[in-house]
Task: structure prediction
Amino acid sequence: MNYDHILIRYGELALKGKNQKFFIRTLRSNVQQALSDYKGLSIKGQRDHMYILLNGEDPYPIIERCKDIFGIQSFSLAMKVNNDEESIKEGTLEAIKKEEGETFKVTCKRPNKEFPKSSQEMNRLLGGHILRNTEGWEVDVHQPDAAIRVEIRHDATYITSGRTEGKGGLPVGSTGKSLLMMSGGIDSPVAGYLTMKRGVKLEAIHFHSPPFTSERAKQKVEDLAQSLTKFGGDVTVHYVPFTELQQKIFKNVPEYYGMTVMRRVMMRVSEQLAKQHDILSLATGESLGQVASQTMESMNAINEVTNYPIIRPLVAMDKNEIINIAKEIDTYDISIRPYEDCCTIFVPKQPKTRPKREKILELEASVDFTQEINEAIDQVETVVYKNNANHKQDSFDDLL
Ligand code: ATP
Ligand code: MG
Result:
């Protein structure tokens, strides 16, 4: 008898009342997608656990891949046996033979109350069976080397041991969609990752200013989007040509207010594009006090142009904390490649750190960006990056 299943525990998802079925279905589909190159697996989402039936596949690479999927609290290897005492005894014995150490504990749960023995009775029975049939093992209920769990359910009994932690969070796609404002920097990909952690499906918007920004700068964004796909499936990126707008801003607005106005225009474009795609929120990598555009005054002034909810997972994080996550999710090395971003090219030497709202409104009253905003949106290039495919897909335009 062998471990023939992987058991997946849901964590927070289990608390979601009536929506539970939807959350489980979403998680199941995400797991299925991440494992689509395995043909023989069967994935069952039940109310309190999910099981992957291995059909002879090696469980460890599968667990490794599923560790990147949000909505999973932990994994264990599981053996499915019949609901009779003899099979359960035999399975438990097999399970302990695969363990190393000197002390063990058996913990039995019995959701199936029709089973004739209580959990306590089963603990004693199975513990005794192990002691009689093995050598060198002793019981330790407090800190055992091997913890064998036995769950007697209606369909069968599952015997599990070991536990690998998952990432927690909610299954991507279960809480809606957000448009991530993504630069090539360190912060926004981390913000995207944390937004996905709360079950959000991402699309991204990137402003670039050719010929002032290079193809290599764009390549950074492509690589970042590609790295995010392993956490949330396909990521669609909308590339917005920003050169004309930036030139118009810096021609018509005094230099020290240029950055604030530029950010306001970015927000307006992002909101408009989000609306076009039925996306209900924006997400950014802003972190309070980090740079001039992220002082309380700047955030207030920039935020004023939209009443869309803006998800800012990094707002209260230190740069070091952000960098640590960037390293963990493998975006850091891409982000630090030294290519220019549109914001760094046009950035004034002394941007206003405490912009005044009245002053901005006065400046913007004499220059109208609406036409250029509409043109930029018309010229958006949209590319979908796919999980498991290490190359760029065709743009929508090419497919039409
Ligand atoms: P990041 O590391 O994400 O670039 P940052 O610390 O450099 O952030 P800013 O340059 O002030 O901060 O940008 C703040 C936020 O504005 C970014 O996190 C991102 O969400 C958005 N942003 C900046 N530049 C762009 C861009 N070219 N395209 C899309 N969004 C951008
Ligand atoms: Mg930046």
